[in-house]
Structure prediction request, 533 residues.
Amino acid sequence: MIYFDKVTKLYGDMAALEEVTISVAPKEFVSIVGHSGAGKTTLLKLLLAEERPTAGSVFFESIDINDLPSSALHHYRRKIGMVFQDFRLIPNKTAYENIAFAMEAAGRTDDEIKSDVPYILELVNLADKTAHFPDQLSGGEKQRIAIGRAIINQPELIVADEPTGNLDPINTYEVVEILKKINELGTTVIITTHNKGVVDAIGRRVITIDRGRLVRDDAGGKYIL
Amino acid sequence: MDWMIFKRMVIAGGKNFTRGGAVSAATVLIMTVTLAIIASLIFLSALLTFTLNTITDKVDVSVYFVTTASESDILAVKSQLEKLPQVASVTYTSAADALTAFTARHASDQLTLQALQELGGNPLDASLEVRAKDPTEYESIVNFLEASPALSAGGTSIVDRINYAQNKEVIDRLALAIQATREVGFAVVALFALASILIAFATIRLAIYTAKEEIAVMRLVGASNAYIQGPFIVTGVITGVTAAALVLLLLWPATWYAGARTAGWFGGFNIASYYSGHFALIFSIVLVSSIALGAIASVLAIRKYLKV
Prediction:
C-alpha cells in the first residue's frame, strides 16, 4: 500500500532521511519510533506530499506521490486521515464544524454531513460537546475531535504524528484504544511516537529510525532504542 | 462551482466574520478609514474642479468696437466667434447697455456722472465679452480676430481695441496655475488613494496571516485551494461592505455639519448638497472600491499560504 523506495531528504546539507526503504501493507498498524529529530515527522510529511524527497520515491498504492501535480494533491490527501500532536483544529469552528469541514472539503452532501457527523461525535464520546469551540475543550477532547475528523471520510490510511504527545495517561490510553479500534475495522494506521508505553500497548510492528536511517523493523512490537 | 459549494463558502465566510471578534472589528475600522479617505478624495476633486472652474469663468477677453460700428456688423463678428471651437460663450454689450451699467455703477459718484453729462452723448464703446473653454485658448482667439479684421462698409476696421495684451500676463499665469493645481491636485488624490489602499491591503494580509495555521489544516484535510480561498474572500467582501455602509452613513452628518462652512469658504461649494446630489455616484464608487479591496486583498494575501 505504501512504499518508500530509497528515500533521502536533505535540508541544506543536513540529511533528515537517508536511503530509507519501507513498505506498509493494507490494514497494518505501524509505530515509527525514534528520538526527537530522528526523521519521523519528515517521513510523514513526505507521505502527505508536504515535502518532496531529494532522492528516491514515495508510492501510495500505485501512485508515485512525486508525480502528483499541485492541483491533484487535495484529492490525494482525502485518502488519508491526519492526527497531530497539537490537534490542529480550526479555532473558530465548533467541534461539529471541525469534523464537518473534512466532509465539506471532500464534496459530501449536506444530508451525508447531517447523518455522519453526529454518529462520529457519538463514536468519540463527545456528543455533548457538539457546539463547543476548541478552546472550550480539554486536550483529550480535542484529540478525539481530531480523530473524528480524520476518520469521517473513511480514509484508507490514518497517519498520526505523536498523537499522545500532549495528553495525560488516561487520555493517551483512550486515544490508543480508538486507533486500535479503527485499525481493527480495516484502516491502515501509521503513528509516530517516542512513548514506550504507547508502543507496547499497541504491540504491533515497530520501525525504529535513528539520525535519518532505518535501524530496526520489528514485527514483534517492542520499543527498543 | 456548484450551488452547494458556493453556499458553504458564503456561510463559512459569514461565520469567520462574526466570530473574528477583534480581528474583524480592526479590519472593518481600517477599511472604514480607507474608504473615508477615498470618499474625501471624491469631495476634494469636486471642490478642486469647482474652484478652478469658478476662476476660469472669471477670465475673459473683451473686444471693444469703434463708436461708429453698426450693431449688425458687431453681431456678425459675434456669430463668427461663436463658431470657433475654442470659444465657450460670447456676450454682446451695446454702447447703451454699457452706459446704463456705468451709470448704475457710479450712481453715488456725482463727480463722475457730472463729467459724463458734460461730455454729452455716449462715449462708451459697444463690446463683446469672449470666454474661452480653456484659458490657454485666448491667444488663438485674439489671433483669429487680428488675422481677419472686421471691416465697416467704408473698409475701416470696426474693432477699436482688444484688452488681451494688457491681460495676457495675468491670463497666462492663471492658466499655468490652474493647470498646475489640477495636476498636483490629482497627483495628491492618487497618492492618498494608493496609500490608503495599501494600508487596507496590509490589514487584510495581517488578518489572513493569523489564520495561516488554519489554512494549513484545511489543505491537509483535503480542501481544494478554491474551497479554502472562498470563505476568506467572502469575509473580505463582508468587511468591505460593512465599512462602506459605515462610511456612507457617517458622511451624512459629517457633510451636513461641514456644508455651510464649505459654502462660505469656497464660494458656494456646499459639500452636503454635493453629497446628496451625487449620492448614487459616491455610493457606487465607495461600494465597488470596498468589494474590490476586500476581495483582491484577500486573494493576494491567501495565495502564499496555498503553496503545497
User: Anything to note?
Assistant: Helices of chain A lie at 40-47, 73-77, 95-105, 110-123, 139-151, 169-184, 196-202. Chain A has a mean pLDDT of 91. The beta strands of chain A are 2-11, 14-24, 29-33, 55-60, 63-64, 80-84, 157-161, 188-193, 205-210, 213-218.
